[in-house]
Structures are given as structure tokens and as C-alpha cells.
Amino acid sequence: MAGSKFHNLDPGSRAIILAEFLVLIGVFVIGVELLRFSGFEGIPAYGEGILLLHCLAFTFPIQLSILSVGLYNQKIRETFRGVIRRLLVSIALGYFISSVIYVLTPLDVLPGNFRELLYAAVMMGLTTIRYFALKMQYEHMGRKRILVLGAGERASIIEKRMRRKSDRVSFEMAGFIRMPGDSDDGIQRETILELDQPLESFVLANGVEEIVIAADERRANLPVDSLFLCKLRGVEITDIIDFIERESGQIAVNLIYPSWVIYSNGFHSTNYLRSSLDWVCNTFLGLIVLFLTWPLMLITVIMIKLEEGIRAPVLYSQERIGLNGQPFNIYKFRSMRTDAEKDGAKWAQKEDPRVTKVGNFIRKYRVDELPQIYNVLVGDMGFVGPRPERPAFVKELVLSIPYYNQRHNVKPGLTGWAQLKYPYGSTEADALEKLKFDLYYIKHRSFLLDLLILVRTAEIILFGKGR
């Protein structure tokens, strides 16, 4: 997401959300008018609130489902065929949610096959919108032309972490300028500029809209007067840490320094009211999930017993580190063999040979995590937060990774920002990368961010991207 605040959508996403909302409204209105034209009686007038409720029950679930399958993610990497597949899933989800609304509320279902025809029309309309949006490269709307002051180690993080086209959809690189004190082993493949004119002249002549400060040694090395003139002319000046945070949704742990944390926005303190509301929301959501998933949990128990015998344990508990570094026991459906850790604690791995056949399935679709609803109900965890780690690993990671302990400043969760943004990892290097996302979450933590993470977790579950 572009913008220094996580919930500020980029122009391309805003445009496609609006376009698809208008398609949904248009399809609904045309459908209602066709019903009137066909002579069907009992259709409410537009001035009546009941028709508005029908419209909301139709449009809101679909757009929520589109969000949940990742189609409002500016940096999604999908072919048109993949987009169609996700649209089909979102339409089916929207239909299901809408049906639940009609069951749980006094709203009468609209006549005949009217709803089904509406959803078919919406599928065609949204497919058309997506086709032309991809052709016009909607994700490049609002794209900025940026110039980086620095070509050393700090600047090289852009080259290393933003190599793909999808990483740069919101900006176009004008080039890098080597500064005094920059290390020689920094930028290797990007364009390094040699200016023969004042910085402000180059910026204006080349349409640069943003300057990123990434010099290794800033003291007495930055062209302050030129930057001042650029700022007066409306050019945005951004620190490399803030740029990485904005574009990648993570905080560059290896670049931050205490004063940046002190003066930056975010890292809001918690209070009793916020904590109480968090507990109420998590408990309410936990009870709903428990009510909806108990049949799935019962089936999981049966499958584990069928694969490994009637005496095989179904659950396992493991000590993890939670809020303020306090240990607690986490509960899961057992997905590994009973002798999985006979040689001591080991990192879980992708394609782990210790995983059973049933375990492989329930891990892929996150079913193994469902017993942690108990941890949510007793207050050890929330639905959203950094994933809790084992004490043995925490002791190692605190010593080797700077700021690792700060992830314990918030309650751990069933899912989190790192789980959405980073693939499955089982090494210290992976722990460092996940910490970058965890710190971003801690800095920007809010109800809206939690809600988006919960909605986007559906994409992981639906498409079998369990992490």
C-alpha cells in the first residue's frame, strides 16, 4: 500500500475500487428495473430503505470478498487467468455471505433466479473492468519519479529488496547519486548518475517528484541548500527508512536507529480501554469461529485417529513466549509424528519430513491452528499479532537480531502482517525478515489494520498458502 499510513490506498486501487463499486450498483439497479419491466409486483420504491438494504446485502459482501482474495493489492502478481480465478472465488464468497445475511435478517430474498442472474452479470462486468485495468496498467496510476541520494550500503537495500517490477509499480527510478562516504560495495546494477549541474536544476529538468536520502554518511555530506530549494518547489524529501517502510510494508531493522523511533509517528502506547476492547472483540470473534468450525475440528480429530491409530494424541501443547516476554502454552492439532522432536527442538521447515499426511493438509489450510481459539478466549493471544516463538529460539534470536524483543510489546496472534507478507521461513534470516514486518505492524497497529489482516488471511486459507 502506498502512503506513509498503511490504510491510505494508492490511486490505482482507489480507482478500481470505485469502478467496481459503480459496476455493482449499476448491475443491481438495471436488474431491479428489468424486474419492474417484466411486471413483477412488490418491488420497493427507491425512496424506501428496504431496497437500500438489499443493495448493501448484494454489493458489500462482494467487495469484501474481492479484498479478501487479494485483488485490491496493488502489487499482486497474477496473470489475467489468475485474476479471473480469484474473481470467481470472490463472487462465490459474496453469494455465500449474502445468503447468510438473508437467513439471519428479516429481509425477504428477491424473487426467482434474480440473485443468481445478478451475480452472473456482475462476473461479466468485473471481468471487463479487470481486463481494461490490466491493459491500461492501472497499478501505475500516481506513480512517482524518484531520485536517490546515495549509492552505498544503505541505498543498496532498494536494489536488493525491490528487484521485481511488482515492487516498483508505485515509483519510477531516475537514478542514484553517489555521495561522499558511500561504501564501494553498494549499488551494482542500477544507474549511478554523475551530475554536471546543481541538484535542484537536475530535479526540475527531469521531473523528479521525490528525493530519497540514503547516504551512508550524512553529516556535512548532504547538499542541504539544494534540498531546501527542492522542498520549496514541492519535491518530497524522504528518509530511506521511511521509503522502505512505505513501499514494502516493513521496517528495515538493520538501518534504524533510536532517534528515528523516538521521532517517528506510530508505536502508539496501549491503554486500559484499548486492551479491554481488544479482549472483548477477540472473545466475541473467537466464539463465532468456534461455533462455525467445530464440525471441521471434529473431522480433523477423526482423520488423525484414522491415520495414526485410536491411541494417537490429537492435540499437542508447546511453550511459547507472549506479551511482555511471559511464557504460555499454545495448543494445536498435532500435524507431526509423535517422535518429531526426539532429538530436541528444531525449526519447522517447508516440506518437513516429520509431517503426517493429514498434518500436511491441515497445516496448508491452517486447520491445525484452530485449537488456539482456546488461547484467544483465555487472553494469551489475539487473532492478530506477531506469531509467538519458542523460548529456546527466542533466546538465540534476541542475541543475534537487533530489536527482536520489541515484538513482545504486543499480544501474539493467530495471524499477522508477517504471515501475509512473507513466505514460510525456518531460519534465523527468515526470523529477521519477519521481524521487519512485525515491527511495521506494531508501529501502525490499529483496528483497521487488524481488520484488513483478518480479511486478507482468507486469501492464504482459500489458496492454500499456509505459512
From TrEMBL:
NCBIfam families: EPS_sugtrans, EpsB_2. It is a multi-pass membrane protein. Residues 281-462 form the Bacterial sugar transferase domain. It comes from Agarivorans albus MKT 106. The keyword Transmembrane applies. InterPro entries: Bact_transf, EPS_sugar_tfrase, Sugar_tfrase_EpsB_2. This is Sugar transferase. Belongs to the bacterial sugar transferase family. One of its GO terms (cellular component) is membrane. Coiled coil: none annotated. One of its GO terms (molecular function) is phosphotransferase activity, for other substituted phosphate groups. The chain crosses the membrane at residues 12-31, 51-72, 84-105, 117-134, 284-304. It is found in: Membrane. Keywords: Membrane, Transferase, Transmembrane, Transmembrane helix.
